[in-house]
Amino acid sequence: METVRIRTPQSLLQLLPRLVGETTAPSLVALPFSAGRSGMPMVVDLPVGGAEDAVAHAIRSGSLGAEAVVLVACLAAPLGTDPLPLRDELVGVAERLEGRGIRTLELLAIAPDAWGDYAHPDVARGPLAELDLLDDPAPGVPAPVPLPGVPVGADGDAARAVAGWFEAMHRGDLDAARAAPVDALELAVALAPRLGEGPGALGVDPAKAAALAIALVDSPAMRDVAIELALDGSEAAAATLAELADPASPAGIASAERFMGVGSAPDVARLTDRLRRWTAIAEAAPLELRAPLLVIVGFLHFFLGRARTAGRCAELAMTIDPALTMAPLLRDIIDAKGAPDWVLRPQDPARPRQGSEGADAR
């Protein structure tokens, strides 16, 4: 679950592809709100030919419990200097929604050449180029670094190099990685940005390290360790390894709660960095081996409050490997909680984890 503050029509239109994906014009995007939080966006037909009642009914039916809505008309033709099209029809939809207890916060239009506001039809149209300029945060404040989305496979140098190492992998290499899993996983993560570049000055090939990590996380226990390394660091991961021998221990129960988003906030910079690196490894993984990587990436998205992307990772993992039980578990956690405690209630005091101390205490 992401928290985004929308202060201007421009910032809302800038976020439109992120909220609903690619939309085909002509169409009408409806973004419902309840208690200040946005709900699931929907895309319906524009109200042409007297379809105001049908469009308003579709929006009302798909946004049960909503108190307000933002409407964006995605138009196929340029706006030019002509009056905004379908103004009466769209205002009619807004009035019908108002009669059903849903007020319209914004009524906007976006076209191939410009955007407009139906509340101010005589104001000059805004060029699309201005949507690429951040007005929020304030000028001079750096924009947040964008996060990767759902990993998609790519037939590039990295994927070919990883596939080659799978064909050439020796049992001894895998046994050595299993004997020191934290070191093997950390090496793969450290070298992930160089996948496909070949061996470095020390003769270590990032693709081989990634192939070994992919083989390791086929084990549920190693997936836990990989996620723990990203979430709370090496000391917590070492504690998780010790807990695996006794799942009923208090520390083991604490780890399970941690994966459900319970406890204090993790180091966001570390978590974000690990998300990017594991995404690179997942995209280089062969399709038939990618499901466990999608689960790892999905949990990291969930920890960052990105429930929608986390859910897509879980669903794609289930499609690739229906027997992978950790994927539906992630989906269930997302459906039950929406976001971790540290995202939903960041003001809550930290809850330290039993059995760990120092910088990685939870």
Automatic annotation (TrEMBL):
Superkingdom classification of source: Bacteria
Q: Give positions of region: Disordered.
A: 343-362
* Protein name per UniProt: DUF4192 domain-containing protein
- What organism does the record attribute this protein to? Agrococcus baldri
